[in-house]
Structures are given as C-alpha cells and as structure tokens.
Amino acid sequence: MADNGESGASAADTTTTHEDGLIDFPFKLEAQCLLLPHYADCSKVGYVLEGRAVVGVILPGETKERAVLIKKGDVITVPKETYTWWYNDGDTDFCIIYLGDAAAGLTQGLITYFLVPGQAAVYNGFSTDFLAKACGVNEEAATKLFSSQPGTQIIKPEKKLCVKTHDRDRHGIVLHEDSARFSNHVPCGGHVVSMTKDNLAALEGRFRFSINITKLEPNAMRVPGFFPAIQLVYITRGSGRVQISGVNGATTLDKEVAARSVLVVQKFYVMAAVAGSEGLEWFSIITSER
C-alpha cells in the first residue's frame, strides 16, 4: 500500500517475500488517517509496535461487523477474505508489523488487496447499469454512490471519526501479549509467549501457522532449539547476535541483529540467540498450527 498523496496519509510498501511464500510487511498509519475498507487474498497476523487504531472487521462467514481498539502489544489475526478498515484515532503514528502466508495468493508470494470504495475500488469494473440493478437504485444514484470517495487507499477525514468499540469483539481475533500464558519463562532471563488456535480462535482452520513472541533480558541467551517447521522471525526491539546451524553442523547464519532485522529459520535447523545490553525481542510465525 502507498501514500495516496493526501496530507497526513502514509504507509510503508515494503513487503518482503521469503521461503515457502511467507512475507513480512511493516505498516504505518499516521494520526487521524483512515485506511479504506478492503479485503485480501492472503492471511496475515499483525503485532502492534506503537500507537493505537480502531479496526472494523467482518470475518468470512460472519455478517456482523466488529469494531475493536488495538494498541501496542496486541496481536490481531486477519484471515484471507476478511473485510477490514483501519482508523488511527490517536495523536501519534500507528505502527504494526504483519507476518503472513502468501503461498496460495493470486500471485505467489505477494498479497493482492481489493479496495471496496475509492478510485481503485474493485466495483469500478462494473458498468453503471449493473451497479444500479445490484443496488436497486437508478443509475444516477449508483454513479453518486460509487464515485463519492475520491481517495485511493488512505485518506485523512476532515473531522475526527468517533467509532464505538467493544471489548467483546476482540474475542478470538485479538489477544494482547500480556494476556497470553508463557510457554517458557526463565526468571531474569526472558520468556516466550505462544499463540495458537487454543487462545486465538481465528487461527483454527484459517492459518497454517502459529505465533511466538520472545523477549530476552539484557545479555540473556535463547538456548539452541528447533521447530519441525519453517520460522519467520522479525526483530522488534533491542539487539544481539543470532546463530543458526543446519545439516551436518554447517553454520548457515552468524550475524548481529537489531530492530527490523528479519530471519528465516528452515525446518529442523537449530537457532540460538544472545541478547545485547538492551535485551532482544522478536515476533515470529511458525508453519505449524502447534
């Protein structure tokens, strides 16, 4: 997604494709800006790094829209075909990192977005008489309805939007890292939070991966370990050193990492990490439901 040229609206279009169709996509929405309603052909999960936003969500198979407030530390699931819009109702930038699965997308390894309103709306491919008949209105009304939004992807409304959110709407699709149980915790060393279909219901049947959030205290070590699945790792804070060992004990990675570094760990490869003086944290997905 990209800036549509309107004041105050911006987004980072830096999607990176990795092995097995996995992707990472940092996204920023400036204060009081609105990402117009859309859906996509791929599933992704987001981890909020900074700020807050109101998100409208209609999941596949549901007809009622949910409205949720998400803030730093929240994880939100966005299955493919999900209808969403995003509004930054705060006074600072809203920053989120998405990790996703684009292996089965229209274009393998890429997410394709379908906007509902605006100049690039998917409905613009229909003639006015078709749209009028579909909506049960005359052609003049249809023209007004489908051309009333001049923006493309992100707009800045003239007035602040007031949207009522409900905590109950978070159930199954949003979970804060502090609300999830530790799957591993070492006092003064760090902890790992795991999110699966057991504590984030939207993952069941819609995603082929689970989620981990790992936090190491300064100078602590994440001892060597492996998953029987591919792991995509995004460093969210701090710095440190990561090593990965593969077949026949070959070193496949030995590097210093910092915030915004991205790593791919192949299935059965062993990863270890040592945090620097400020600690080391990462958000990751593993191509296994467990």
Output the keywords.
single chain, 290 residues, 2 helices, mainly beta, eight-stranded antiparallel β-sheet, elongated, Jelly Rolls, 20 strands, 2 domains, 45% strand, six-stranded antiparallel β-sheet, disordered N terminus
What does this structure look like?
This protein has helices at 128-135, 139-147; strands spanning 16-17, 22-29, 34-40, 43-50, 52-58, 66-71, 74-78, 83-87, 94-101, 113-115, 154-155, 174-176, 182-186, 190-195, 210-216, 221-225, 231-245, 251-258, 262-265, 270-286. It is mainly β. The chain folds into two domains: 16-170, Jelly Rolls (Sandwich), CATH 2.60.120; 180-286, Jelly Rolls, CATH 2.60.120. Strands 13, 14, 15, 16, 17, 18, 19 and 20 form an eight-stranded antiparallel beta sheet that branches. It has a six-stranded antiparallel beta sheet with strand order 1-2-9-4-7-12, with no helix packed on it. The model is unreliable at 1-11 (pLDDT under 50). It holds the Pfam family Cupin_1.
